[in-house]
C-alpha cells in the first residue's frame, strides 16, 4: 500500500552520523543511535542527520516519526531510482537529487534531503558523497555562515555540493572529446566511432538527470514556504545557474559529438573514395596494355600472309613492345596528373 517501506535486498547496512550545529560550536557523533537523536534533538539550533545505507527499514521509519516526515516521501527514499524532484509539506520539504558515481557505467546514487525549520535529514544509498567540503566548513574553528544561517542554508549547501560534483566528470569528458577530435584529424580509426557513440550515450544520460534537477531547483526557488528564507533563495539561484551551466556543457558536448560522428563518417567515406580512385586509375592504366597484349597474343600465322602480324618477326619486337606499353602507361599517368586526378 502507499507509504509502506520495503527494503531493497541489495541495500547497504544503515549507519547514522549526527551533526549538531550552532553559530558558535558544533558536535559530530559517528555511528549515532536513535537515543543520541532523541537526546540532542531539541537542544541545538540545527541538527543534521545523515543516514548511509537503506537496509534498516525500522530505523528509517523511526527517523520519519521523530521528524514527522511524510510516509510517501519515505517510500521514495527506499525506492531508489526516483527522478530529481522537490515536494513541499506543511513543515518540511523533500528534495531528491542524483549524485554521479561513474558516468561511464551510468552509476548514479540517489540522495534524499529533508529539511525543515531546524533540521536536515539526508539519506544515501551507500558510502561516499560530495559533502566533505560542507563538513569541513561546519567543523571550521571560526564562526561561519554555514553554522549561522539555519537549516535551509545547510540544505542549500548540500544540494549545491551535489550539483557541483558533476563539473569534474563533465569537464573530463570534454577533454576526451577534444583529444578524440585531434586524433581523428591525424589518423581516423574505427575505434574512435565506438568512443564517440559511448560518449554521446553518456551525455544523453547526463541530460536526463540534469534537466529534472534544474526543474527541482526552480520549483524550490519559486514556491514560498516558511522554512525557506528569501536570502537562502538567492544562494539557490546560484545553484540553479550551476545546473544550467552543466546543461549547457552537456548540450555543447552532444553537438560536438554529433559533428565528430558525421566528420568521422565523412573521413571514412573520403578514404574509401581515395582507395576507389586509385584502384580505378590503376585499372584504366592497364586497360590499353591489356588490349595490346590481347592483340599480340592472337594466334595468326605470319607465314600464311604478310598481313598476319608482321611485327612478330621484328628483331627488337619484344623490347619495342614493352617500351611502347611503358610509354602508354606513363602517358596516362601524366594525363591524370595534368587533370589533377593524382
Please explain how this structure is put together.
By secondary structure, this protein is α+β, with helices and mostly antiparallel strands. It is built from 10 helices and 7 strands. It has helices spanning 34-40, 57-67, 71-78, 132-138, 145-148, 151-164, 167-186, 190-222, 230-296, 317-338, and strands at residues 15-21, 26-30, 46-52, 85-88, 92-102, 107-116, 119-124. A 7-stranded mixed sheet has the order 2-1-3-7-6-5-4, sandwiched between helices. A hairpin with a 2-residue loop joins strand 6 and strand 7 (119-124). Helix 6 (151-164) packs parallel to helix 9 (230-296) and helix 9 packs antiparallel against helix 10. 29% of the residues are buried.
List the helices and strands and how they pair.
Layout: E1 15-21, E2 26-30, H1 34-40, E3 46-52, H2 57-67, H3 71-78, E4 85-88, E5 92-102, E6 107-116, E7 119-124, H4 132-138, H5 145-148, H6 151-164, H7 167-186, H8 190-222, H9 230-296, H10 317-338
Parallel strand pairs: 3-7
Antiparallel strand pairs: 1-2, 1-3, 4-5, 5-6, 6-7
Give a quick set of tags describing it.
Beta Polymerase, domain 2; rod-shaped; single chain; Methane Monooxygenase Hydroxylase, Chain G, domain 1; 342 residues; 7 strands; alpha+beta; 2 domains; 7-stranded mixed sheet; 10 helices
The name of the CATH topology of the largest domain is Beta Polymerase, domain 2
Under CATH at level 1, the class of the largest domain stands as Alpha Beta
CATH superfamily of the largest domain, called what?
CorA soluble domain-like
* Percentage beta strand: 5-15%
Looking across the biggest beta sheet, what order are the strands in? 2-1-3-7-6-5-4
Number of helices: 10
Tally of distinct domains: 2
CATH architecture of the largest domain: 2-Layer Sandwich
Order of helices and strands: EEHEHHEEEEHHHHHHH
Shape: rod-shaped
Oligomeric state of this protein: single chain
Give the terminus-to-terminus CA distance.
76 Å
Please tally the β strands and state the result. 7
Structural class based on helices, strands and sheet pairing: alpha+beta
Radius of gyration from the alpha-carbon trace, in angstroms: 37 Å
> How much helical structure, as a percent, in the residues?
55-70%
Tell me about the largest β-sheet. 7 strands, mixed
**Uncertain spans:** none
Q: What do the pLDDT scores average to? A: 88
